[in-house]
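Dear colleagues,

As part of the handover before I leave the project, I'm documenting each prediction I ran so the next person doesn't have to rerun anything. This entry is a single chain, and its sequence is reproduced below.
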Amino acid sequence: METYNHLFSISFTVPNSKYEDWTYTLRHEQSLVVAALLNRINQIAQDSTELTEGIEGYDTYKEEN
């Protein structure tokens, strides 16, 4: 049986950052980023319409079995 590997990304926002540049937020406010990501995951788990709005697929390849 053929199987495939898919690459997805999840969209979420990080409110209340002290930094204008998002790269500084990733470096210096990791707890805010992780909390926002976990919140988004919870939203998606609770509401299936959020699944198609908050997740995008980027790449697929056939797995070697």
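The beta strands are 4-10, 55-62. Helices lie at 22-28, 30-46, 48-54.

All the best with the project,
I.
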